[in-house]
Design a protein that fits this description.
Helices cover about 50% and strands about 10% of the residues. It has 7 helices and 2 strands.
Length: about 160
């Protein structure tokens, strides 16, 4: 039932997709320029960053994750990454750098769960239109996006 509802919402918005795609592309291009200027990092001819993440950068990104947030399907919480320690940060650093080098995102990091959230006061709890879908993504995905320099909610790995 929820799947059908969200598919219908997606199809209703599909007519705006071409415009949204161009707007999204433009936003991402601006972010790349901002990152290049902020971090004085050049892009190579394949469009990838020419420097790799450091363990300290990964540790800082993990330590800055917000507590008490819902995890994705993998059930890894922000706190697990926050307090995981050097060995975890070193492993994540290797993983993220490999993903960037290979240009490959494992399917497990692309998977999310859509949870219906009630919009609130004055809405009918029995109507699906009174709910919005929130996508719960894997925490490892969130940490990678945070490390990539994108503000929360503005970037995706796919």
């Amino acid at each position: 039932m929820w799947e059908t509802h969200y598919r219908e919402l997606l199809n209703e918005q599909h007519s705006e997709a071409a415009h949204y795609d161009q707007v999204h592309y433009d936003v991402l291009q601006e972010e790349v320029k901002h990152l290049e200027n902020t971090y004085n990092t050049e892009m190579d001819n394949t469009g990838t960053l020419d420097t790799e993440f450091t363990v300290n950068e990964i540790a800082n990104a993990c330590k800055n994750l917000t507590n008490n947030k819902a995890p994705g399907y993998d059930r890894i919480t922000n706190e697990c990454l926050k307090y995981g320690g050097y060995t975890l940060y070193e492993t994540l650093c290797k993983l993220y750098n490999a993903m960037i080098r290979l240009g490959y995102i494992p399917p497990s990091l692309k998977r999310s769960i859509i949870v219906p959230i009630f919009k609130g006061k004055g809405k009918s709890k029995t109507s699906m239109k009174s709910y919005r879908g929130v996508s719960l993504t894997p925490t490892l995905n969130k940490a990678m996006v945070r490390q990539s320099g994108f503000p929360a909610g503005t970037a995706t790995l796919y």
